[in-house]
Specification:
InterPro entries: Hexapep (IPR001451), LpxD (IPR007691), Trimer_LpxA-like_sf (IPR011004), UDP_GlcNAc_AcTrfase_non-rep (IPR020573). This is UDP-3-O-(3-hydroxymyristoyl)glucosamine N-acyltransferase. By secondary structure, the chain is of the alpha/beta class. The chain contains five helices and 34 strands. The longest helix is centred in the N-terminal third of the chain and has 12 residues. The chain is globular, with a radius of gyration of 22 Å.
């Protein structure tokens, strides 16, 4: 998430009531979680095993729970609870704007778009030319819907990311301040859910088609002209390149990459990155031709045992 106006290390430390290390005028231009950071961003870290990753990331300001050596050119914010302070920052710079009307006054909807009955369109949403949104759909704040998009009945675009911190008294949700971007010529079926980014963008690439009851997790980027059949579930922070096909009930674990042109057959489970241009099957998914040979071999086991 980019800030509307840059701020400084000292100003953020005063707002949070925490100590800082570095140049007081060190500039901060954005807030992001570790998967999306770029120079100018704040990132948080509250586990020592991840200190190195955060300190060496592209982020130039680190919200951390222990005073450590500050890398050159960066700034540190020393906090007793980085997770809570990160939430405090994101809520301050991008507060939740709950709408009590069907269409927010701050939404920008092209006159050529068709909006069905009982559709809810939140704050700062934009809807492009010739887009059709069927009855009951909900488009939550900051979502960007391109031209010639179809969104099916009762689908939800831009709801909270599934991101929690476990505490002794339960789970605290990470406040989602990112966006959901649906590019041109995308079709989304009925009862689909596409979560907004935690602090970055969830993207559905141009020309992609999603069947009914598909779920896309936070900060996932789906390429152009992809095809997802019913009940596909994709976790957060996944990168899916162009022209990937996921058939029915495929499940995808978080933080992996699926290469361009890959095809994954129905009911497969993907737990690691896959090369493009191949067909996959099984759980865990592997190349289909190998998996089918394995299945054929397993079927012969009773016969083999009988002949021992």
């Amino acid at each position: 998430m980019k800030l509307a106006k840059p701020t400084t290390l000292k100003e953020v430390a005063e707002f949070l009531g925490c100590r800082f290390t570095g140049n007081p005028d060190h500039e901060i231009t954005g807030i992001n979680e570790i998967h999306k950071v770029v120079p100018g961003d704040i990132v948080f870290v509250d586990f020592e095993k991840y200190y190195k990753k955060a300190l060496e990331s592209a982020a130039t300001t680190i919200l951390i729970d222990k005073e450590v050596e500050c890398p050159e050119g960066k700034g540190l914010l020393i906090s007793e609870s980085p997770f809570d302070d990160f939430n405090k920052l994101t809520r301050y710079y991008n507060p939740e704007r709950f709408s009590y009307t069907s269409v927010s006054e701050t939404a920008a909807i092209d006159p050529s778009a068709e909006i069905g009955a009982n559709v809810v369109i939140g704050a700062n949403v934009s809807v492009g030319k010739n887009t059709i949104i069927f009855p009951g759909a909900v488009i939550e704040q900051d979502s960007i819907i391109g031209d010639n998009v179809v969104i099916g009945p009762n689908s939800v675009i831009g709801h909270y990311a599934f991101y929690y911190k476990k505490k002794t008294d339960g789970f605290d949700r990470m406040y989602s301040c990112g966006r959901t971007i649906i590019e041109d010529d995308v079709e989304i079926g009925a009862l689909c859910t596409i979560d907004r980014g935690v602090s970055g963008d969830t993207v559905i690439g141009a020309g992609s088609k999603l069947d009914n009851q598909v779920h896309i997790g936070h900060d996932t980027v789906v390429g152009k002209k992809c095809l997802f059949a019913a009940n596909v579930g994709v976790a957060g922070c996944v990168t899916i390149q162009d022209r990937v096909t996921l058939w029915g009930q495929v499940g995808v674990a978080s933080d992996i990459l699926i290469g361009e042109g890959a095809v994954v057959l129905a009911q497969s489970g993907i737990n690691k990155s896959l090369e493009g241009g191949k067909t996959y099957f099984g759980s865990p998914a592997g190349e289909a031709r190998v998996k089918f040979r394995e299945i054929a071999a397993i079927k012969r086991i009773p016969e083999i045992l009988e002949n021992l």
